Amino acid sequence: RIIRLVRLVRLVKLIRLLHGLYVILMAFWHAMQTMSFLLAMMLFGLMIYAIMAVNLIGRNASLRDVRIGTDTVPDRFGTVYKSMYSLFELMTLEGWEAVARPIVQEQPALFLFIVSFIMIFTFGMLNMVVALVIDKT
């Protein structure tokens, strides 16, 4: 009987620990439901900016020979999908300077395009994701 009582006490302690895990998982689940709409909005906005990037950067004759690392500008911004990938790098600020600097040096007006993208997506949308997770927990 004592062994059964010890097992029962262990089970109660485990349930208390799992309750905290349950609360965290439920908060994450509720955050994911709302976050799906935010991620869809980010994807839609990223696609709009990618279409603009193809027209402003990828098809720009003066940027045709500009190199971004080992790639040329048309290799990085020639299609909508390539532009989405390059803009995703900008959004995460992963090597953004290596992408932005050669373009802006050749076409300074594109600074406004790149900065507006970074301000809206990096400082706006990604911070909304963080705020959403914090709000739901």
Automatic annotation (TrEMBL):
Q: Does the keyword Transcription apply?
A: no
Taken from the UniProt entry, a GO cellular component term is: voltage-gated sodium channel complex
> Transmembrane residues, as ranges?
12-31, 37-57, 110-134
Q: Where does the Ion transport domain start and stop, copy by copy?
A: 1-135
Q: InterPro entries, per this entry?
A: Ion_trans_dom, VGCC_Ca_Na
Instruction: Tell me where on the tree of life, at the top rank, the source sits.
Output: Eukaryota
* Keyword line: Membrane, Transmembrane, Transmembrane helix
- One Pfam family named in its UniProt record: Ion_trans
Single GO molecular function: voltage-gated sodium channel activity
The way this protein sits in the membrane is described as: Multi-pass membrane protein
**Location of the protein in the cell:** Membrane
Under what name is this protein listed?
Answer: Ion transport domain-containing protein
